[in-house]
Design a protein that fits this description.
This protein has 251 residues and is α+β, with helices and mostly antiparallel strands. It has helices at 2-20, 25-66, 108-123, 143-154, 159-168, 175-184, 189-196, 199-214, 235-250; strands spanning 89-90, 97-103, 128-134, 222-225. It is elongated and about 110 Å long.
Length: 251
């Protein structure tokens, strides 16, 4: 930082020496005084810039050390009272651990999470109860009709069969296919179509969405293990939480 300013001062001094060969002593003295003032001003400027750089580095270091949490990150220690109600579930009602998921049938991340759910249910057939909650996002035009198809299928005891059909054929969601898949999984199709349009089915979805807001759901899929929302989504993470919960309850 100091080198450029010092060079300017030296150039000025060199000019002064050159002039001293052809100028009177008073002129040379004035030039040297000017060079001294310039150099003093440059030194003061360098000092101020160095102080500013030091201050900026300290501010950056403090900001990095703070590492604020993402504004939308869930608090994994906060526990909510999840109302299972008439939500479709897999696993025994008296299971040690209950997992609730808010999901959207048109959400690609929810489709991927389907495999995670199967992993958990298969790994803990006696200790985990998995329950599904609908949260059709407004910018997914097929999400609400698909949710109605799933809830209508649940009324005939075939929720998870329709659940898998919807996720496995996510790019083909349509009214015609809901009816087609209802037949393929063995539903009474006429009753299915009536239930899809019933106020009762719509009310259940609305209830799920309202509760999602109450427990802080900000997107899909959102999982809650015994009322707590983990800060992440993987089989390894969920297994560690489930194992710890089972251990504590058995103790």
């Amino acid at each position: 930082m100091k080198a450029p300013f010092r060079s300017i001062a030296l150039l000025a001094a060199g000019a002064a020496l050159t002039l001293s060969a052809c100028a009177d002593p008073q002129a040379v003295g004035d030039i040297k005084a000017s060079v001294d003032r310039i150099e003093a001003s440059q030194k003061d400027m360098v000092t101020k810039i160095e102080a500013l750089e030091k201050s900026n580095k300290e501010m950056i270091a403090k900001a990095a050390a703070a590492k604020p949490a993402a504004p939308n990150a869930p608090d994994p220690n906060k526990k909510y009272d999840i109302n299972i109600g008439n939500a479709p579930c897999k696993g025994p009602a008296n299971a040690a651990v209950t997992i609730a998921e808010w999901s959207d049938f048109q959400c690609p991340f929810c489709s991927q999470a389907k495999d995670l759910v199967h992993q958990i249910v298969d790994a803990y057939p006696k200790d985990v109860r998995f329950c599904f909650k609908n949260y059709p996002l407004p910018f997914h035009p097929n999400a609400m009709p698909a949710a109605k198809a799933a809830v209508a299928a649940a009324k005939q005891g075939k929720f998870f069969e329709m659940h898998d059909k919807l996720f496995e054929n996510q790019r083909e969601l349509s009214p015609e296919n809901y009816v087609k898949w209802a037949g393929e999984i063995g539903l009474n199709v006429d009753q299915f179509k009536k239930d899809m349009e019933s106020p009762e089915v719509a009310a259940q979805i609305t209830s799920d969405m309202k509760e999602a807001g109450d427990v802080g759901v900000r997107g899909t899929p959102s999982f809650f293990i015994d009322g707590k929302q983990p800060a992440g989504r993987s089989f390894e993470l969920y297994k560690s939480i489930i194992d710890e919960s089972i251990k504590n309850k058995k103790a």
